[in-house]
Amino acid sequence: MTPLLTLKQPPHMLPKIPARTSMMMMMMKHNITTRKRRAKVARNHLLKRRRSKAKKPRMKTATEVISRILWDEQLCKDHFVIGYLDRFLGVIEKDFSEFSWEDIASVDYDTLAIPKHRIQYFKYKDDIVWDKTKRLDDVFGSTGSKITIIDVIEKYLKENESREEKESDESLDEDGVPEEVESDEGDNKGTSRKKNSNRPNYFIAIQINNPDIVNKVEQVQNELCESDSALDDTRTSLKKLHVTLCTLSLDTPSEMERAIAVLKEEQNNLKALLAPATLLRFQGLQTFHDRVLCSVPQYNPVVMKLADHLCTAIDDAGLRIVGTPHVFTPHLTVLKITRKQIKQGREHLDYGLYKDHVETEFGVQNVDSIHLCSMLDAPRADGFYYSLASVDVSPEN
Q1: Residues 80/96, Cβ–Cβ less than 8 Å
Q2: Which of 11, 106, 136, 205 has a CB 3.0–4.6 Å from the CB of 131, allowing a cystine?
Q3: What share of the chain is helix, strand, coil (3-state, %, to 5)?
Q4: What is the DSSP annotation of 209-270?
Q5: Is residue 204 helix, strand or coil?
Q6: 5 has a pLDDT exceeding 80
Q7: How far apart are CA 45 and CA 278, in angstroms?
Q8: Closest by alpha carbon to 94, among 102, 103, 104, 85?
């Protein structure tokens, strides 16, 4: 008879458990531990899903975005693009203004109208501001980004202002020598150029030569300078009135030749883009950084495409665009304060100075040529900027 086990018995005297029984006990213990671990993981995963669902706010729908673009006076419909799912072609982008937002059952076959559930994303210019699959909403900020479409627009405006501030530095001193050029006292050759790849030295522009616009600009300049004689030095030369399409840094003859070649190669494409005729209508005055007083033309999508096309062609040629490519606000400068004048104490242009001209009609300019202009060289015989190249882009009859 086997004696009863007591706790005082040493381990080597305990009865041995068969190996098979020991293995089964270990497997049972492992299975129990595994089930507990899996149950814990599943419970944690479920809790995590519940918490994540509870945290996600309701995302504004495509219908709500469309309604805001249509009715918010702060938004320009022409700046928005829609990416929608075509059943045969995949995702397609179209300008917002091309769509009809009436009841889809009431429109005819030739009208572009889509079910709103096919909309995948909205773009403001080049930025996606609403994306269904990514739960991105920078129109209302409904998904927690705290960014709204007004913030996006302000970002674009600040980038534009930075670019325009650089452009305003192209202005010349009274003696015709730009700020980027300094006298070389130790050289009988006169002047030498400071090469700085971070600053523009050339720009592509539309010359403003409509006599009605030129005369109106002169009239406004005279009125403003009569009210403040210190502004006389801030006048833009009437012979140099222009709209800048993009600014470049061209430091070598090879780069200049490539820029000229780009304009000539793109001439026919630009003619086709501008057909049958492209007009810039200037009305009102506004400022950049309170330093540049200008007239911004009525929105024209063709001119926006012209600037974008040129930027793409120049970038493809390996040339450097200074500023923010594809971010473009056309304008006609009337007065501008230079850095030299700022140092002399003139820091800004007061709104009260030009408030009577915020609705002034200046006139209409036909876009028939573009010019690759130098900021450094002496002007042409007619007083306009010296041009490496001038290209006729008037549509052929």
Answers
A1: yes
A2: 136
A3: 40, 20, 40
A4: --HHHHHHHHHHHHHHHHH-GGGGGGBPPGGG-EEEEEEEE--SHHHHHHHHHHHHHTHHHH
A5: strand
A6: no
A7: 61
A8: 85
